Amino acid sequence: DVSAEQAGCRLRGLGSGLEIASLAEARAVASTWPSHILASMRKLIDPLPEPGTIALIEVFCGDGELSNAVERFGGKAIRIGIKHSPEHDLTRPSVIRALIYLILYLEPLHVWIAWVCTSVAGFSALNYEKHEHLRAGIDAAGQNVKMWLQMFRVIFHIQHSGHRGIHGENPAKSLALQDP
Question: For the residues of the chain, what is the DSSP string, one character each?
Fold first, then answer.
């Protein structure tokens, strides 16, 4: 198995419980499903669907248009976003951990992540340069984006290793895509 450092999927700064050394280690944790992990996943969706039955998990979904389309064609979809539940606040590391474990548990056919781009949009760089009073907020939002990019890397490796789809959406000129 590839180490997390080599795969680029170590989530730093997300607190205890997610300093994963390898994908094999993540799967080993997931295979036992301790009650506290199941409880954290149930905060995202309750009851938990059976593994292998979900066509799409849409993250940062807003109105969930992609999920709506999947359901119109008879598939099952899960929407993760603050608009759907206060428990879906992906600025909280505990919610990111629960989402990662949910994806390990459910093995969805596809995961679609369209993270918020406001702090990494071109106008943010302009506002940062011209408006000193906005800098702290832009910096804080930028830290969230870095955390979400780390989350995406972990989910990418989970989905890719299971031969399932992972999709990310952000504007082509997003500063997030320039982050190594």
Answer: --BHHHHT---TTS-TT---SBHHHHHHHHHH--HHHHHHHHHHSSSPPPTT--SEEEES-TT-HHHHHHHHTT--EEEESTTT-GGG-TTSHHHHHHHHHHHHHH--SEEEE----GGGSHHHHHHHHH-GGGHHHHHHHHHHHHHHHHHHHHHHHHHHHTT-EEEE---TT-GGGG--
| pLDDT tens-digit series, residues 110-128 | 999 987 666 555 556 655 5
Q: For every residue of 79-90, which 3-state class applies, written as one string?
A: EECCCCCHHHCC
Range 124-129 contact pairs with CB under 8 angstroms and sequence separation of 24 or more: 124/175, 125/175
- pTM here is 0.72
Burial (0-12, 13-18, 19+ Cβ within 10 Å), 23: buried
Q: What is the pLDDT of residues 68-102, one digit of tens each?
A: 999 999 999 999 988 878 888 888 888 888 999 99
pLDDT in tens, 126-136: 555 666 776 67
Give the pLDDT confidence score for residue 140 in this predicted structure. 66
